[in-house]
Design the sequence.
């Protein structure tokens, strides 16, 4: 920049106030991804409760899938084995669905997990007030801030819930393998297991985004001066 | 110098902060006109309302009463989009605490406002490098803020403030957290910018070194403008102080 172009300096007549500020989606992804990468440890903490809750959900539903698979073979020996390992099966039952009590525990664990995410995200957002205020001074709209937080939560959710769902399924399969031998893995329940894993991942993703909604709204609505007055 | 446009006009602005039952009158009626291309320093003791005025001019906070005009547009009338555009394109901010985004590299910090302004990524990178070169940090473009010294961070902030060729640069105590010589470098850099690019620079400061480079000094005391001195008056009064000191 040896020569400085005077034609686009402030003394030239300038356009008045316009309204166009943008943050392209690709760039949003890039910023959100980098933000997670740089604060990896923080993200790990935020995601931990999600991983656990989702893996529990996945564990329970894969267990049910396997039990159903074993039942559907119609083998009386397997039926006896199921009853021995704690399934309440009446003689006419053809499915071994999870008990209401079990379902409640899963729902409770998911609820606790959402509260944990909200808590962790509120803390994460507070740590980032100055950054948010700065971005707003540079021309970011509330929407940009909201979008960045939602994208971050979505990505964290996808990875965290994915890991949780897979590990939950793996534990369930392992447990069944030990109890029922290789028959547990050769039942025709493959599709249902995949579906359960996908479902658990989806639920986890949703919860992650749900948990960040309130903190992200708080962050996005901050006035730049307020956000930057916070001592850090 | 016949047709100097006024770029910032502050009309009878007051600001009152309500702290519980106590009302703090940070600004008690400020009128100010700043012509395009000038280097204006706002001087005053701590707590006199410099930062408050700075925030009003920058559209970061709203006056309790009175109006602020940028380019003769009343900024209280702007909606969120227009305000964001103003912050993005028209004004560059420099803070005492640098406020570099910690998770981004120097270059990413400088290009962020260009992204908001809709500039293509390659062009933004190119221009970001030019600006980093201008502030003497081209070789540090990939460094994160914590790998840079305070003075270097402030230079990144200056490069970032210049990202979209703003008409105004607002600097709130840009040298407040820097040592003497680094502060001087920053001041020289700002002065050169105002000279070469015709950018209007408004800087709140305690720093007497700023006086030498200012076209105009606004003295503010207790939420009111005490006096406004132009460069000529200033050299005289500073000269007098020097003479007195010498006697
Ligand atoms: N958000 C706020 N809430 C309450 N009072 C405030 C707030 N911001 C500023 N004030 C008060 O307004 C007055 C002016 O503050 P301001 O920050 O503008 O001073 P300043 O001139 O920038 O001081 P310094 O040189 O120390 O930065 C002070 O009395 C301060 O306590
Ligand atoms: Mg101040």
Sequence:
């Amino acid at each position: 920049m040896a020569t400085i172009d005077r034609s686009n300096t402030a003394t030239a007549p300038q356009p008045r106030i316009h309204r166009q500020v943008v943050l392209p989606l690709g760039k949003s992804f890039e910023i959100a991804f980098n933000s997670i990468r740089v604060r990896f440890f923080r993200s790990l903490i935020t995601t931990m409760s999600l991983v656990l809750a989702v893996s529990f959900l996945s564990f329970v539903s894969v267990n049910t899938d396997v039990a159903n698979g074993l039942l559907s073979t119609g083998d009386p020996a397997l039926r006896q084995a199921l009853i021995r390992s704690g399934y309440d099966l009446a003689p006419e039952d053809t499915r071994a669905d999870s008990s209401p009590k079990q379902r409640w525990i899963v729902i409770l664990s998911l609820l606790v997990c959402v509260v944990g995410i909200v808590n962790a995200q509120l803390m994460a957002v507070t740590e980032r007030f100055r950054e948010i205020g700065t971005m707003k001074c540079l021309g970011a709209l509330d929407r940009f801030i909201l979008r960045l937080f939602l994208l971050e939560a979505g990505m964290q959710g996808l990875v965290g819930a994915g890991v949780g769902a897979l590990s939950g399924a793996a534990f369930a399969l392992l447990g069944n393998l030990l109890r029922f031998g290789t028959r547990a893995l050769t039942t025709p329940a493959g599709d249902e297991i995949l579906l359960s894993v996908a479902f658990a991942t989806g639920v986890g993703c949703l919860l992650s985004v749900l948990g960040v909604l309130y903190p992200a709204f708080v962050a996005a609505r901050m006035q730049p001066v307020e956000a930057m007055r916070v001592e850090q | 110098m016949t047709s100097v446009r006024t770029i910032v006009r502050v009309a009878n602005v007051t600001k009152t902060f309500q702290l519980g039952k106590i009302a703090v009158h940070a600004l008690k009626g400020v009128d100010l006109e700043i012509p395009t291309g000038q280097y204006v320093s706002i001087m005053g003791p701590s707590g006199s309302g410099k930062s408050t005025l700075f925030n009003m001019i920058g559209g970061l906070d709203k006056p309790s009463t009175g109006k602020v005009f940028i380019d003769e547009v009343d900024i209280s009338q702007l909606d969120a989009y227009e305000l964001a555009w103003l912050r993005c394109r028209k004004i560059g901010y420099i803070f005492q605490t640098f406020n570099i985004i910690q998770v981004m590299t120097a270059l990413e910090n400088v290009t962020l406002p260009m992204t908001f302004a809709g500039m293509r990524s390659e062009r933004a990178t190119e221009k970001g490098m030019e600006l980093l070169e201008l502030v003497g940090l081209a070789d540090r473009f990939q460094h994160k803020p914590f790998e840079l010294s305070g003075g270097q961070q402030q230079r990144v902030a200056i490069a970032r403030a210049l990202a979209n060729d703003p008409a105004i640069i607002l600097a709130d105590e840009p040298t407040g957290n820097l040592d003497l010589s680094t502060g001087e470098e920053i001041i020289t850099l700002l002065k050169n910018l105002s000279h070469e690019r015709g950018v209007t620079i408004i800087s709140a400061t305690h720093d007497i070194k700023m006086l030498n480079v200012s076209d105009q000094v606004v003295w503010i005391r207790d939420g009111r403008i005490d006096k406004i001195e132009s460069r000529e008056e200033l050299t005289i009064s500073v000269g007098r102080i020097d003479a007195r000191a010498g006697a």
About this structure: Residues 2 and 9 of chain A are 15 Å apart (CA to CA). The mean pLDDT of chain A is 86. Residues 142-180 of chain A form the longest helix (39 residues). The pocket of adenosine-5'-triphosphate (ligand 1) is lined by residues B 17, 19, 24, 26, 44, 46-52 (CB under 6 Å).
